[in-house]
Amino acid sequence: VLDRTPPQVALRSPTPGEVVQGSAIVSGQTEPGAVLTINGARAQVRADGSFRSSTPVRRGLTNIVVVARDSVGNTRTATRSVLRQR
């Protein structure tokens, strides 16, 4: 049986539209063993599937794109918009 189910990505932070100062804390849960990127940079996934990373944010409204890929190549993307005023 071929696995075609992408890993889940549940973002706890940042909240949608959150105002940040220089960087955003991106945290959440995905499938244990998944490869995770945040805005293209690889992030560590703990053994239980949780992750937490600080990501720099440019001024203005910015999308933070989180992509999880499992061992057979299935991917899921989650996006959050944040606002950096300074």
Q: In whole angstroms, how far apart are the ends?
A: 51 Å
Largest sheet, spatial ordering of strands: 2-8-7-4-5
> Whole-number radius of gyration?
13 Å
Low-confidence stretches: none
**In total, how many beta strands?**
8
Q: Helix tally?
A: 0
pLDDT average, as an integer? 95
Structural commentary:
This protein has no helices and eight strands. A five-stranded mixed sheet has the order 2-8-7-4-5, with no helix packed on it. Strands 1-3-6 form a three-stranded antiparallel sheet, with no helix packed on it. A hairpin with a 2-residue loop joins strand 4 and strand 5. With 86 residues, the protein is mainly β. The radius of gyration is 13 Å and the shape is elongated.
Compile the SSE list and pairings:
Blueprint (H helix, E strand, L loop, with lengths): L8 E5 L5 E2 L2 E8 L4 E4 L2 E3 L6 E7 L3 E10 L5 E10 L2
Parallel strand pairs: 2-8
Antiparallel strand pairs: 1-3, 3-6, 4-5, 4-7, 7-8
Provide key terms for this protein:
86 residues; mainly beta; 3-stranded antiparallel β-sheet; 5-stranded mixed β-sheet; single chain
Quick structural summary:
The chain is mainly beta and 86 residues long.
